[in-house]
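Internal QA ticket QA-208
Title: Verify multi-chain structure generation after dependency bump
Assignee: T.L.

Test input:
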Amino acid sequence: MIQYIASVATEGVIFSIMALGLNVIWGWVGDFDIAFYGYVALGVYMAMVTTIGRLPAPDQYILGWHLPFPAAVVIAMATAALLALGVGAVALRKLRASYFAITTLATVLMLQIFIGNYTPLFNGYNGLYGMEQPFNGVLNLSPQVYPFFFLALCTAVLAAVYLVLERLSNSPFGRALRAVREEERAAAAFGRSIYTLKLKAYVLGAALGGLGGALFAAYLGAFNPTAWSPIETLLLYAAIFVGGSGNNRGVILGVMLVSVVFQEITRFIPNVGGNASFSSAVREILIGILILVTMRYRIQGLLPEPRPKDAVGEAVAAKPYAGRGSAAD
Amino acid sequence: MDTVFLGIGFGLVTGSILALSAVAFTLTYAVSGIPNLAHGELLTYGAYAAYAVTRATHNLFLAAAAAALAGGMTAWAMNAGVVEPFVRARIKNIVIFIATLGASLVLQNIILLIFGGANVAYVLPQTESLQIGPFLWTSRDVTIMISAFVVMLLIYVMLQYTKFGKSLRAVSENRELARVSGIGAHRVVQFTWFLAGIVAGFAGFILAVSVGTLVPSFGFTFLLVTVTAAVAGGLGKPYGAMAAAVVLGLAMEISAIYVDAAYKLLIAFGMLVLVLLFRPDGLFSSKAGGVFE
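Actual output:
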């Protein structure tokens, strides 16, 4: 039982890191990016091909190195950031809102088809396996103890990510991003480069996705293209919407509620009438309804983004971010 | 040379199915201003309704009617239940767009709940191959193309010559202006969704007939191809969508001769990205530049 709790908690912590990254793109800047899980997946793949060495033929993939885990994490983050730089440089130039979203959806599906079919890259649809437990070569912990070490490791990473993001969120950079989100033209009129700001946030978010992916690789041990359909991005969004877009604490709360508690509770729905997909279908229907209800009635989420305050401590913005505006914009 | 004509032949079949789907997508965009990401599920619902009917009656005409009706009712419910309440609450378009993605998740899993995740197939009559000019089709392909063409013709007549068609065009230009001119804009929007659903449901049926099998994610897979055609045709422009759909269908099937067919969709999505980047107003538009929201 306690093993189970540790495993679920680890998953929650890793998802929190990913969701915090996505929140930079969606919560702070307001770009609805559907390609995000592609960056996570790339992080997973890169962490694997740089640590698992060579698997026996016919499995084939690039690199096949035996690097220590921290190096793999850095490579995973850098690769995800690089891909995001390419995608963002093209897509963020003049596409906004649903045009941008559709472009990113097309991008992630292209990536999925390409990785699935082009086997020399990451072994195609068969995927990769054989990831070792990070640092356990040195620590030699028993299988009963190691999950707790890994949970602690992930939690430490999450804490670091959280602290950095909190600082960034209140920095001039974070405020500029929100200005872009609220009124792009006004931000431009105040001399902000919209494109550069959006691109920086996009790359930062994707790098955190890659980081989450590298940890996820160690958690899962194996990975293939069926594990990262666009639906996975939507599940991360569901957590962000429920917790509170733009609020780091809200995002973590949302992940714990939606990706951990909700997912685990609905796991116990039995399959009815010989339909093996019954319980997962019920779960996804409930998540869809959760998204719709949140979008309609509580768009700011459970923990709304705090309003900017001036030196005296009075709220300076008239309205909190509520995702509302005229139907025309 | 023969293989090229074979590709063109396949392309025309794919293109005519795609044209129906893209017209339906673009019509709902025209009146509501939202790219409906649950559009694929209209095709899925049509296809599965037809599947249920063929199992009970083995009558393909009844199946086609059921597909159209199921698509129409689903689209009507989608608008009345999701899109319209959001539009009325004056919620940002991007949020409504996300809500349609949520609706897609719900609708797709309802099918999974009822029919399960396994492949199902229609029981179809034997088909013979027909050599028409340089093209080689099956009689089934020809039926698909003719029926799609008839539906498109009906849409054209409706848009150009009926009072409803005029109202639809007026609402898509400017909903408020149409309203103050005495057009029941709300009714027009609802009926447009219903109509688009009928077209999409039928498209789902002929797509399933053409592909042979269907799964709950069947429509979602076709969604982005549909979006590609609709965007290439200029969002909200039905005739542009039809033309772009045929071009896209041809491009996909002809390319499948030269590269691995697994990359067929990659080419379609690549085209979508290129169109969005360079001609976001549609291939046939003379306007250029600007930021697209």
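Spot checks passed. Chain A has a mean pLDDT of 89.
Status: verified.
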